[in-house]
Amino acid sequence: MARDLYIVRHGNTFDKGDTVTRVGARTDLPLSSSGKEQANALATHFRETVAFSQAIAGPLKRTRQTADAILAAQTEPPELEIGNFLREIDYGPDENQPEDAVIARIGQPALDAWERDAIPPPGWRFDPAAIEGQWSSLFTKLGKADDTGPVLIVTSNGIARFALLCALGTRQHEAHDLKLKTGAYGILQLEDGEVTLKDWNLRP
Questions:
Q1: Pairing of strands 151-155, 194-202
Q2: In sequence order, what DSSP letters do the residues of the chain get, joined into one string?
Q3: Which end of the chain, N or C, is less surrounded by CB atoms within 10 Å?
Q4: Which residues, listed in sequence order, are joined to residue 98 by a DSSP beta bridge?
Q5: Average pLDDT per consecutive 10 residues, the chain (204 residues; last block may be shorter)
Q6: Is domain 3-91+127-202 given the CATH code 3.40.50.1240 in the classification?
Q7: Radius of gyration (C-alpha) of the chain in whole angstroms
Q8: Whole-number Å distance between alpha carbons of 37 and 42
Q9: Structural contact between residues 38 and 182, judged by C-beta atoms closer than 8 angstroms
């Protein structure tokens, strides 16, 4: 039987007028006012469309707050599990730096390669193959569970894109924006050991 996984990116951590920085694994910001609105919009949307049977979120405030808002709106919410690999990537020297400073250090082509193909720029501290492996392990575990109900998974931009790459495998991914927008989600389906993409970058 097929099982749907809802991969959700947390809401905003900055509001209009704030200095936006590259928030990674070592920057534990809470949701901003607009981020809380996005989380509430997700909560309302899912309350009307999906009854989650399992929920997993990264350990950072922004992901847990988003997951908590969604689950609070569910009639019979599952207990929230914490998945440490869903934390976020470590941006190294670009952690918590404004985007113009990041581009000045690494160059626009390096940033484009990250956004287009998930190739880490020099100095960013993570292993793409390891993250894909962790996603694959999670997919296998969820696919073998007796529970076949929908799963809520709340994470960050840098981690979420590798779930999409796992689903696409060696197929072309150019048709999809790897970057999951804040307050947006994608849907992957598990069936007979296979992971397929149903949709990506949906916002309520």
A1: unpaired
A2: --EEEEEEE---SS-TTS--B---TT--PPP-HHHHHHHHHHHHHHHHH---SEEEE-SSHHHHHHHHHHHHTSSSPPPEEE-GGGS--B-GGGTT-BHHHHHHHH-HHHHHHHHHH-PPPTT-B--HHHHHHHHHHHHHHHHHSS--S-EEEEE-HHHHHHHHHHHHTTS--TTS-SSPPTT-EEEEEEETTEEEEEEEEE--
A3: N
A4: 21
A5: 96 96 97 98 98 98 98 98 97 97 97 93 96 96 94 97 86 73 97 92 95
A6: yes
A7: 16
A8: 9
A9: yes
pLDDT for 172: 56
CA 194 – CA 21 distance, rounded (Å):
37
d(CA 117, CA 92): 19
Beta bridge pairs of residue 57: 82, 154
**Residue listed under structure tokens 């976020």:** 88
Positive or negative, the CA dihedral 12, 6, 162, 82 is positive
* Torsion 86-43-176-101 (CA) sign: negative
Strand order in the sheet with 54-57: 80-82, 54-57, 151-155, 3-9, 185-191, 194-202
The dihedral through the CA atoms of 35, 112, 84, 23 has a sign that is: negative
Domain spans of the chain?
A: 3-91+127-202
What is the number of alpha carbons within 13 Å of residue 188 lying toward its C-beta? 28
